[in-house]
Amino acid sequence: MARRSCAIYATGIVSAHLLVVGIVLLVAQVFQTMIHSRLKKEITLTEKSQMFESWKNPPPPVYMEYYFFNVTNPEVFLNGGKAALKQIGPYTYREYRPRENVTFLENGTKLFALNPKSFVFVPEKSCGDPEVDLLRTINIPFVAVTNELNQYPFLLRSLVSMFMNSVGIELFMTRTVHEILWGFKDPLLSRIHAMRPEVDDTFGLMWKKNGTHEGEFVFYTGEQNYMDYGKIDTWNGLREMSWWSSNQSNMINGTDGAVFHPLINRNELLYIFAADLCRSIHLGYVKDVEVKGIQAFRFAPPGDVLMNPTDNPANQGFCVPAGDCLGTGVLKVSVCREGAPIVVSFPHFYQADPKYINAVEGMTPNKEDHETYLDLQPTSGVPIRACKRAQLNIIVKRVKGFPKTKLIHETIFPIMFVNEVRPQTAAFVNMHTHTHTHTHTHTHTHTHTHTHTHTHTHTHTHTHTHTHTHTHTHPSTTHTHTPLHHTHTHTPPPHTHTHTPPPHTHLPPTSTPPPLPSDSSHLTPPPDGHHRRRLCVSDADAAPHRHAGLQLPAPHHRHGPHPAAGPRRPLLQEPPEKGRPRPLSPPSVPPPPVPRPTSPLSPAPSPLSPLPLSPLPLSPRPLSPRPLSPLPLPPTPLCMLH
Q: Looking at the whole model, is its pTM more than 0.70?
């Protein structure tokens, strides 16, 4: 009997515990559901949402680090050997990228925006002076012109070749880093410009990109569906492109890389439209990571993104014309670069076919330095750390009629790569995602008693014990709260005074984003494991080196791009004016499609970050209503966190 009673008692205890556990789990699930429901409503691009201001004026700084490949044995390459390349860099610029002309459309479900970018040189984060350091690299105008002339009669090619010889135009050129980036008057393009004015006479990888934007975007605000938050509806008035050979390849999918929808899970693919790559790419979950104590999901482009169509048939649409495909790890973007033989890849041909790595000397691909990835806070979708890396290459091959190319082997020749460093501070992340509760108790003495009751949108509970008491209840994660009512009662003399004060705004100190500094004195080195190469051209490493006695023409506009690129703004330490140059009045509806220029040497379009690439061999294609320039080659970042 006693044994039976013990069994019943034990069963009762276990059942009670299971009941308590079940209730706790149920309450936790209900609470989590409430939080998620609140997040879906709060994380939108509407004027009253907290996310809107940080999307419009991103608080964390963005740095563009440019690395170049200096050619140390040009004669060997011209005689049929391998080119030996020496990486130099970084040359770092602070990038400012506010959203401008933001206009809400279709009852607030979409918004129009421009994203102009301007650049300020940061000497303390650079390996040298770009206006002094010399670089020997492939003469991109030479290659672009000879590639275009390959379809013309042999006689014309021979005449052009004789002209090049007469003025000393070679397959390799030596210029300052500043000229290569921001532009110089090229003798070959100047001659073409005299005959065809629509062809720009200035060449630079970042020519006309200071103070200009990468296109006209219409985004979904997420007001109707949280999964659409930040997604692109149209780019330059287009919902799909026409460059590629399949409908799937021409689709404009995902966001621009700045934001992602909340409540991200490990099983989904995230899409980013990279205008500089002329395509959308997808990222898959890699692993859980921790960034400054914040749990995050790491997403990165899987190996099939740039895989050969033989191994990944979905990439067949990126072969233009059909069947004209390169190997794994590279993407030919000539179709959206007005025919210029431009190829993009990850730095040092990371994840590419070994034949590209071995075609030149000096490539050392590795995951740590050359992988592109995003670390995202899964609840809010906020990027905590972004590392976007990409490389600009050009196809160099023999062209009949040009004796200078008769011995060379066809090579995908590396020019430079970019690290887009986009660190996020813990304070900025916390501003968007808090779900914790704490209690504070304070004691004060007053000569009268009053009671205040406030309701806030936070998950904090504060109890303040004075001779008066404050109770704050925070059900969610928004940092702007307005008291619903305020009752103030005085017991002194024989009267009662009750009033309701006007609403006020209370921002917790930890939610304030860091201010944008006017200089770079606050910068800190990257974390361990993310070292920077600061290898500038030295006497021992390269044929043309600093102070080598070469007489080069003075850079055209030493401190920035040509005025045609936008207002003149120094590329030195002072930040750009707050007012932004040449604001445009956006239309109330998305702009119409922009016709493509017919000239192979006329300007072409651009996009980043994130994965951002944009160096083009020739001037960018004009966009309506002002010229649109391509981004520097896929912006890529060297992971750095402040």
A: no
